[in-house]
Each structure stands twice: as structure tokens, then as C-alpha cells.
């Protein structure tokens, strides 16, 4: 399953730059200029960024396999539309359809990886994913350059469509459901706010160097205001489009920032190097692509290795070293741009792009490992959105600096060669500076990781003091609706590995609680010969199958307990312990106010884990709880 997820990540990022080398022939065929054709790249990134937050809602509402297939189908359909496009408008439409698939596919693939990868091998798994996301945009330039040397640009769309179809079929055959399904609601206003915010902000940045400054500034301001309104709304509504809980973690914020800086480096260099080599060094598209190939191919190998090293030693040394190497060799590549030897230029770029494997994958793993399983899908959404933002930033800033410095050189009397070299060196200095910022953030992340561990230990020792059930409860509640039947309830119990779930009215208020014990008692009374559910294991399942078929027409509220014991959100952990103990219950729904909505579940096992970890913390001064969905081991960032 990780292989399918990695292939999806590769496809999504591969397509972000696959058409870049073909922009010149597309302008010729459709008679458009560079200000129009650039929307094939910018528009793609914008739409992909807008649909990333939507993926989190869809991931928890629909089964993994059909959702994955639907997302990849957008890539296939968009490719066919683009390949057959009779006009630029139709081509752009196909490109934007692909962008919808990319916006959904990147976080889905990462969520699949987080769900199936063992925690002790998370660094390796995320290293593979990071290698694919780094390889995608880089390899796209090599492959497209080779194809354009023997075929028209429409071939690119057909080839990508075929690759997408292969991944679609692989997902349909190999994937199984790994998501924790519920009934999340898509808040339309939140979607519109994040769409306006991202489009405005990224449009302002992308046009800052090439369009009217006033328009760019207005767009950026509108984008920032819309994003601010989006954040305020997420904190107020019951079902936010994006849970902002991950932003409470300083290690997560630093990890995402470092990941973005690494991706900015990749996208910036991938756009300015081909332009410089073709316009200044006289290379054709294939030649320019081949100069990038060695470093790109070696990155695929180094990505998983860097992941293993992160699993064993953390990123305290690896991440800052990676950014330092990126900065140093970016400057050396800038110096080599003034020399005639293209081979020297390409050789110096190899360690620069290899170093991104030490920065991007480990930073991403560090960010997500600072979250628990409940927050991880929301963290994935943030990380996936950052991919698109980093791509747009890297492309726009690099091209903007390149063009501005080239123009400055020409105005100062330099020839085209000297001015273009100055422009490239300006872009190299830009990515070197961002890499230096990555070094600074890496050291800050080390301190934040240590502080997070210390705070966790201190917080755990404070068991029972000034803490409420909100600190302990599981917020991703598996719930049934009053419209469902008992067989559907049993199916959910089996898929989720749970023994019971609350039944909710349409307004979210509690209607009852159904457990597998309630169902077994019913079967025992109504179908005595089928009470042994293990008969399926020994081939004597006819009676039980008839009994279970009876459950299709049985509403859950016929068997559910209506007088449900609950705990208020403001209750202390001691109160929750008393309820669980006195009532001999395994779990209790947490509600907000009398007759309020269910906001979580507090379980006996969660209390037991907290008690044990408190004891261990008091003995050893640090927390080492067992691996579980709410354990410190999952929340603890591994940079230090």
C-alpha cells in the first residue's frame, strides 16, 4: 500500500512541472504569450492548493480505495482533455482538472502511509514519500525534455494519462480502507474563504515581479484577510474544514517551515536551471534535462537512507547539515554559471540536490511525528498544502529574481550572456539564503523538541490536577446515526476494531449507545441456535448468517441503550475515573453541556495509560508509555 501511495505522490508532483518545458511550443500552437501560458503552471498550483483542505473531509467520509480511484481519475480525464484540446482555454480546463486530482491525491497518499507504516519505521516510509515528492518535479523535466525531442507536446499529456491509469488500476486492486470513517461535513463558507485566501495570496506573489504592483498587493492583502477569516471560523464552528490543533505544536510549525524551505529550493532550481541552460548555454531541452538527471536519480536512493538514519539517530545533525550543504553548493553553482564548462555546473548541482533528501523528508517526518494519530490527518493536510504553496513561491520568486537581475544587468550595459548570468546568480543567492534560514530553524527545532518532551513529562506528572477529560478524550468519535440498521453498526465495529459507539441525532446530540453485547443479547434471545459467532470459523455458519440477515431491517435504536451515562467536557479526570469505575464501563461519551453534542470519548484504557505514564515519569523523570493512539511516543518529535 505504501508503494501505491508513493506512486501517487510521485504522479502528483511530477505533473506540477511536466508541462513546463513545453510552454514554448504551446505558445506557438495556440498563439498566446508568456503572460497567458504561465497559467498552466500557476493555475495548476493554485487549484491544487485550494483542494488540499477538502481532502481531509473526504478522507474521513469515504472509503480509501474508491476515494483514491476517484482522485486519480481526475488526472486521467484531465490528461485526455488536454491532449485533445482545440484551444488554449480547453487545455487550461484539462490542466485544472488534473490539479483537482493532485490536491486530493497528495494528502490521501500521505495519510495512507501514516496509517499503515509502523511507528518505528515512520522515518523510512516518509523518506520514501519525500523522495517521490522530490523526484517528481525534477524527473518531470528530464522526461519531458526527452519526449519533446522526438514528439509534439501533446504526447506529454497522453503519457501522463497512461501513467495515471496504471496507478488508478493499482490502487483499485491493492488498496484497502485505512481511514477512520465518520460523517464530517464540508463547511462551504470555509472552503470559499480558503479558496479566496490561497488564490489571492499566491496570485499576488506570482505576479509581484511580472504584473502591476498595485494589483499584486491588493490580491495579497485580500488573500491574507480571507485566510485570517478562515482561521477565525475554524476556531468557532463545530465541524471545521481544517482542524488547527497541529499549529499548537511548535515542533510541527518548525517542521512544516523547514519542509517548505527545502521544497522551495527544489522548485526554484528546477525552473531557473533549464531556462538558463537553454537561453545562455545553448543546450536543447534534452541536454538541459540530462544535466539535472544524475542528482535527481541519486536523490531517489538517498531519500530512504535518510529516513532510516532519522529513525535511528533523529535529525539534530542531519537536517541542519542538509540545509548547510544546500546553501554552500547553491552558491558554488552560481559561481560555476560564469564558466564555460556545463559539466562543472552539473557536477556542483549534484550535492546540492542530494542535500534536499537530508532536509525535506526528515523535516516532514519530524513535523508529523510531533502529532498524535488524531491530529496526524490534519497535519498531513497542512503539509500537503505547504507543498503547493512552496512550489508557487519557489517558481515565482526564482523567475522574478532571475528576470529582475537580468534586466538590471542589461540596463547597466552588460551583454545578454553577462546579464543572464547575473540573473541566475541572483536566483542562486535567493535559495542559498532560504537554506540558511533552514539551518536556523533546525537548531530552533532541536530546542523545541526538548521543550516538548519536558512539558509532556511535567504535564503527565500532574495527573488529576487542574485537568479535564478534554485533555484525555479521543476526539475522532466513531458514531452511528439513528437512520442506520444494526448490521451496518456491526460492520463499523468490525472495520474500526471497536466494541460500541454512540448513536447520534442529526443535530449531533446523543440518542443512545449501542455495543456488540447489546447485539449478542438480542441474537441469543431471538436466534438461540446462532449465539456462537465463532461458527463462521468452523464452517457452520448457516444459522448465524440467517440471524445476521435479520439485523438488516432492525434500526439501531431498537437495541441501543437510551439512558446513556455521559461525562461533561468540563469534568475533571477524577470525575471520569469515578464514572467509569462506579458504572463498570469501558468508555463514556463526553458531551458539551446538558443535552449537548458529543465531542469525544474517554475510555478506561486511556486513564490506565495516563496513570502508568505518570508513575514512570515520577520514577524516571521522562515519559516512556506504550505505543498507542494517544501515547507520548507518537507525539514526541524526533529531531533531538
UniProtKB/TrEMBL annotation:
The keyword Membrane applies. One of its GO terms (molecular function) is transmembrane transporter activity. InterPro entries: CBS_dom (IPR000644), CBS_dom_sf (IPR046342), MFS (IPR011701), MFS_dom (IPR020846), MFS_trans_sf (IPR036259). Residues 1-450 form the Major facilitator superfamily (MFS) profile domain. The chain crosses the membrane at residues 38-59, 66-90, 96-117, 124-150, 156-178, 185-205, 211-231, 252-277, 289-310, 317-336, 342-360, 380-402, 422-444. It holds the Pfam family CBS. The keyword Transmembrane helix applies. It is a multi-pass membrane protein. Residues 473-529, 560-618 form the CBS domain. Keywords: CBS domain, Membrane, Transmembrane, Transmembrane helix, Transport. Signal peptide: none annotated. It is found in: Cell membrane. GO terms for cellular component: plasma membrane. Its main location: membrane. This is MFS transporter. It comes from Georgenia yuyongxinii. The lineage of its organism: Bacteria, Bacillati, Actinomycetota, Actinomycetes, Micrococcales.
Amino acid at each position: 500500500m505504501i508503494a501505491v501511495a508513493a506512486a501517487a505522490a510521485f504522479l502528483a508532483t511530477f505533473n506540477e512541472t511536466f508541462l513546463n518545458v513545453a510552454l514554448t511550443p504551446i505558445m506557438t500552437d495556440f498563439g498566446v504569450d508568456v503572460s497567458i501560458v504561465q497559467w498552466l503552471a500557476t493555475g495548476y498550483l493554485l487549484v491544487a492548493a485550494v483542494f488540499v483542505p477538502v481532502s481531509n473531509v473526504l478522507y474521513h467520509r469515504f472509503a480509501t480505495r474508491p476515494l483514491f480511484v476517484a482522485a486519480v481519475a481526475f488526472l486521467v480525464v484531465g490528461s485526455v482533455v488536454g491532449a485533445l484540446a482545440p484551444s488554449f482555454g480547453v487545455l487550461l480546463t484539462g490542466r485544472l482538472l488534473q490539479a483537482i486530482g493532485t490536491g486530493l491525491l497528495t494528502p490521501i497518499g500521505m495519510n495512507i502511509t501514516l496509517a499503515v507504516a509502523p511507528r518505528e519505521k515512520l522515518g523510512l516510509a516518509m523518506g520514501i514519500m519525500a523522495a517521490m515528492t522530490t523526484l517528481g518535479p525534477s524527473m518531470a523535466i528530464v522526461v519531458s525534455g526527452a519526449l519533446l525531442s522526438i514528439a509534439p507536446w501533446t504526447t506529454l499529456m497522453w503519457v501522463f494519462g497512461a501513467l495515471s491509469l496504471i496507478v488508478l488500476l493499482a490502487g483499485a486492486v491493492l488498496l484497502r480502507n485505512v481511514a477512520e470513517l465518520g460523517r464530517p461535513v464540508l463547511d462551504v463558507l470555509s472552503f470559499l474563504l480558503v479558496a479566496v485566501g490561497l488564490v489571492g495570496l499566491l496570485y499576488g506573489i506570482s505576479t509581484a515581479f511580472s504584473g502591476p504592483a498595485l494589483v499584486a498587493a491588493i490580491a495579497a492583502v485580500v488573500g491574507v484577510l480571507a485566510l485570517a477569516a478562515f482561521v477565525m471560523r475554524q476556531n468557532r464552528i463545530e465541524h471545521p474544514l481544517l482542524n488547527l490543533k497541529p499549529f499548537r505544536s511548535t515542533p510541527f510549525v518548525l517542521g512544516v517551515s523547514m519542509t517548505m524551505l527545502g521544497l522551495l529550493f527544489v522548485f526554484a532550481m528546477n525552473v531557473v536551471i533549464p531556462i538558463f541552460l537553454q537561453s545562455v548555454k545553448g543546450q536543447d531541452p534534452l541536454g538541459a534535462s540530462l544535466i539535472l538527471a544524475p542528482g535527481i536519480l541519486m536523490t531517489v536512493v538517498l531519500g530512504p537512507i535518510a529516513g532510516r538514519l532519522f529513525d535511528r539517530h533523529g535529525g539534530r545533525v542531519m537536517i541542519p547539515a542538509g540545509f548547510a550543504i544546500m546553501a554552500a553548493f547553491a552558491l558554488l553553482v552560481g559561481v560555476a554559471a560564469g564558466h564555460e564548462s556545463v559539466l562543472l555546473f552539473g557536477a556542483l548541482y549534484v550535492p546540492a540536490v542530494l542535500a534536499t533528501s537530508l532536509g525535506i523528508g526528515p523535516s516532514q517526518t519530524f513535523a508529523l511525528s510531533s502529532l498524535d494519530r488524531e491530529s496526524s490527518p490534519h497535519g498531513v493536510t497542512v503539509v500537503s498544502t505547504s507543498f503547493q504553496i512552496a512550489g508557487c513561491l519557489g517558481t515565482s520568486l526564482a523567475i522574478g529574481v532571475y528576470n529582475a537581475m537580468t534586466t538590471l544587468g542589461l540596463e547597466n550595459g552588460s551583454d545578454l550572456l553577462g546579464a543572464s548570468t547575473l540573473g541566475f546568480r541572483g536566483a542562486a543567492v535567493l535559495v542559498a539564503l532560504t537554506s540558511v534560514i533552514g539551518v536556523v530553524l533546525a537548531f530552533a527545532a532541536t530546542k523545541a523538541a526538548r521543550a516538548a518532551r519536558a512539558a509532556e513529562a511535567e504535564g503527565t506528572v500532574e495527573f488529576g490536577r487542574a485537568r479535564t477529560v478534554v485533555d484525555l478524550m479521543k476526539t475522532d468519535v466513531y458514531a452511528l446515526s439513528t437512520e442506520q440498521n444494526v448490521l451496518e453498526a456491526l460492520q463499523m465495529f468490525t472495520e474500526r476494531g471497536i466494541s460500541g459507539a454512540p448513536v447520534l441525532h442529526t443535530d449531533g446530540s446523543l440518542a443512545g449507545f449501542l455495543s456488540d453485547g447489546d447485539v449478542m443479547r438480542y441474537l441469543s434471545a431471538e436466534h438461540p441456535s446462532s449465539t456462537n459467532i465463532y461458527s463462521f470459523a468452523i464452517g457452520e455458519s448457516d444459522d448465524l448468517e440467517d440471524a445476521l440477515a435479520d439485523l438488516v431491517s432492525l434500526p439501531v435504536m431498537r437495541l441501543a441503550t437510551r439512558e446513556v451515562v455521559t461525562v461533561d467536557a468540563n469534568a475533571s479526570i477524577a470525575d471520569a475515573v469515578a464514572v467509569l469505575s462506579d458504572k463498570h464501563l469501558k468508555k463514556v461519551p463526553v458531551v458539551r453541556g446538558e443535552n449537548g453534542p458529543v465531542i469525544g470519548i474517554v475510555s478506561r484504557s486511556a486513564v490506565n495509560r495516563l496513570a502508568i505514564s505518570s508513575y514512570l515519569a515520577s520514577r524516571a523523570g521522562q515519559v516512556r508509555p506504550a505505543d498507542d493512539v494517544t501515547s507520548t511516543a507518537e507525539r514526541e518529535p524526533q529531531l533531538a
